[in-house]
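Async update (no meeting this week)

Hi team, since we skipped the sync, here's where things stand on the single-chain job. The sequence we agreed to prioritize is pasted below, unchanged from the tracker. I ran it this morning and attached the output directly underneath so nobody has to dig for it. Comments welcome in thread, and please keep replies under the output.
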Amino acid sequence: MDIFDKCINRMGPLGIYADQAHGYYTFPKLEGEIAPRMMFRGKERLTWSLNNYLGLANHPEVRKADAKAAAEYGMAYPMGARMMSGQTKFHEQLENELADFVGREAAYLLNYGYQGMVSIIDQLVDRKDVIVYDSEAHACIIDGMRLHIGKRFVYPHNNIENLKKQLSRAAKIIGQTGGGILVITEGVYGMSGDLGKLDEIVALKKDYNFRLLVDDAHGFGTMGPTGAGADEHFGVQNEVDVFFGTFAKSMAGIGAFVAAKKEIIKYLAYNLRSQIYAKSLPMPMVMGALKRLELLRSKPELKDNLWKVVNALQNGLKANGMNIGNTESPVTPVVLNGTIPEATQITYDLRENYNIFCSIVTYPVVPKGVIILRLIPTAVHTMEDVEYTINAFADIKKKLDAKAYKQEFAEIV
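Output:
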């Protein structure tokens, strides 16, 4: 068999809809300045689908810093991987400031969060070790564990009693192998918006010997008194052994970082394959991240504004009968019951008749029969945006309950 046959004949659960969906439901093009209102297919839409929590993407100081760094350094500098020829004092400065902000001894920059997490897991464990992880772990965590040739056990999402059972299983194994246990959870779960139970997880350390890795891509910048993350929110920064954050959410940029004790970061810097064999993060990204971090630290009103919008939106949706799950973060999922064709009809109605653009999530990301309309509030949305969206979603729910969306894909205009 030709290995390309599967590319043609087995498109996968999402790819089978490519002919009807491409360019509208999948791979849509948002155009114009990054803002609450952007252009989609020639019309202005109120946009709730951008990971721009603090509104930094088009902040004038950020744009100025990005432009200045690009003009001064270009996109090529520094050339080579960090270990070989890609090191600069600004990379080191950003790492030091990040470590200080999240309350860790040291930090190390990662070119991308996804590849970085894969490499972190790959290097922290070997065949003797056991991984215990949450069932709703992000794809980067799952792919990192695929490289692990030792045992791994999963516990149902945020089920601490089951976590104890998996830790007991892991303890028996390492008793024979001489290895260790790595527990992996997220600070904020990016689809549901609920928080990993970090306080309850770290409390288990007194009974089980394990290290804790937390992916806090959505919590960094949004959670905790200073925005340092979900572990700050729970007051357990000293108990989270390895903290992972990205620039793609609150910082509205490119890149990521890992923070821990100095000896752990030194080990990772000399062993992370995704960084050793990749070009250093370009200077405009580094200088831009320094400016973003400065604003995050010096302008608490950005996070305050975000949470004003979040609270107004979430409270209003709930008051109008919407199910937003157990979110405790800015991530706002509106959970509906329906089929994939109904999901496309809802999305079409929102975009064409209400001029609202938000992300649609269906099977296989969520179970069959479930539709999630995922809203990402930002600090630059207004109360008028919130009120309009709540009213629109109330209309949509009434239509769905009345079976108004029972047909195939909407025709894409």
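Quick observations from my side:
The chain has a mean pLDDT of 93.
The two ends are 39 Å apart (CA to CA).
Reply here if anything looks off.
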